[in-house]
Fold:
Amino acid sequence: MIHVGTDVHVRNSVLNAKDQDGQVLARGRCGNTMLELGAFFAPLERRAKSTGETIRVVMESTTNARAIQRLLTQYGREAGIDLTAEVLHARKLRVIAESVNKCDRVDANILTELSRSNLQLPVCYMPDDEEFALREH
Structure:
């Protein structure tokens, strides 16, 4: 499995990707657009297709986490890979909230390590598009 920790911001995200053994596959900052996220995920997509690995993306709940989750889910569908994007409950991730060394790269790395740990992470409920539309009105 490929694990990707994502520290999401309004205009961009900091991403950190590792394999199951902890080897860094990719890391960096990219814009929150399909084009830029696709450029970051392209090498991971090639690896996933050649090895049959799945990609698990985890991110803290933020204002636009739902939008990023939808973009990544769409990317995985269009690329034909098994990509799961999960939004984690930020308040329950005490390891990040109480971190002394607070920076985007560190937060993305912590999220990646949490994903690799196989612990049961506090995943937020994210309504599907139909239910979300009903809630908005």
User: Anything to note?
Assistant: The domain at 2-136 is CATH 3.30.420.140 (Nucleotidyltransferase; domain 5).
